[in-house]
Amino acid sequence: MKVQFQGKEVNIKKIGILTGGGDCAGHNAVIYGLLRRINQANHTLPKEEQMELWGLLEGWKSLTRNPETEKDKIMVKLTTTDLKDSYKVSGTIIQSSRTNLFSKANLEAKAPEKAMENVKKLGLDCLVVLGGDDTLGAAGKLGKQFTFPMFGAPKTMDNDVFGTERTYGFDSAVEESVHFIENIMTTVRSHKRCFVIELMGRHAGWVALYAGIAGGADLVLLPEEVVDIRQVIKKVEKAMAFQGYCTIVVSEGAHLFSKSYPQDVNDSNKKLLDEVLADSKYALVKARHSLPKKLDSFGNEQLGGIGEYIFSILEKHTKGIEYRLQNCGHAIRGGRAHVSDRILGLRFGDAIFDFMLDGKFGTYPGLEANQIVPRDLLEVKGGAFIPEDNQLFKMKDAVDFY
Ligand code: F6P
After folding, report:
1. Ligand 1 atom nearest 302 alpha carbon
2. Domain segments of the chain as ranges
3. Among 51, 52, 148, 241, which is most buried by a count of CB atoms within 10 Å?
4. Quick check: 236 pLDDT over 90?
């Protein structure tokens, strides 16, 4: 299809699409949304302008492979048959990886240059990159550095990408989390226990906030707040006294210590944790506590484990309460793609085609007041945290209303 790119007419025929970072619901829907428009346009385009959509396998990793010797591992041509059912499930049919072309080692190895040489060798005229801020940021840089037609779409269960009021993947993760919490809740009530349930979401507490409230948790602990364990203990005791059981949802990014916390909170959290670590009953917690933090290729810390600290501190410092710990892990990122993520993914895919028609390259669709707006890939960033004045923030702890 002939379109305008940087003041020149280009004929975009072979489009590559990739998914980077953690998988989520809606990736397949974006691919399908775009493919539908390509198919529709092909009916009226002359043969020499007809388009194909090719899935680049395992995200940016595909472009680090050798097109001469590893072609099968690099890309597959996509058809509507591939997508017809898969847009209803989470994950990505073209696989993903956390490959960072701009890591120090990859920059030294000239990975961005090699990736773009490979794009040429593969005959691709345009790239569509689906991912969070890291993946989209790389697309922006490559598009600019190599003057190449690029688009993106903002995914992530964490809902923490700037420029859009919703990322696809979030709603499904919330729905799955609520399902998880409610299943646990039957045991919570039957056995009159206190459960600590940890949910992913990185440094943004959106999933925990929505799922905790919707799932009926008594207490929700977020990365965006000061977690004062003395207050947590009081709230747990209040819930136990009121109803005989308690459910605490904790976001994996919540923390016990922070430079931004008042000193007395840091000190008292430390004292309570130190007493746990000194107790041989919690030798495993101590062992895990002493392990170095793991980083992914973008330098993001691998989270997970705050639930265990909260669980052990509560168990150690309260009396007569039976505790259990449950980390939902990746289960909430997978399974069904819920309706709103199917719709949002399809809308994003559809919008990318419109952006291409309008020559709006270097952009990704964002959602603003539920309308699609083009956002600049070079301006993408993460860290869209829950603002303090968010209405749900003060509603989050059901125990405050007992
Ligand atoms: O960014 C999405 C996310 O699911 C985070 O919530 C979580 O911390 C991380 O990915 C887990 O990454 P991985 O799948 O690489 O373990």
Report:
1. 8
2. 2-168+337-379, 173-333
3. 51
4. yes
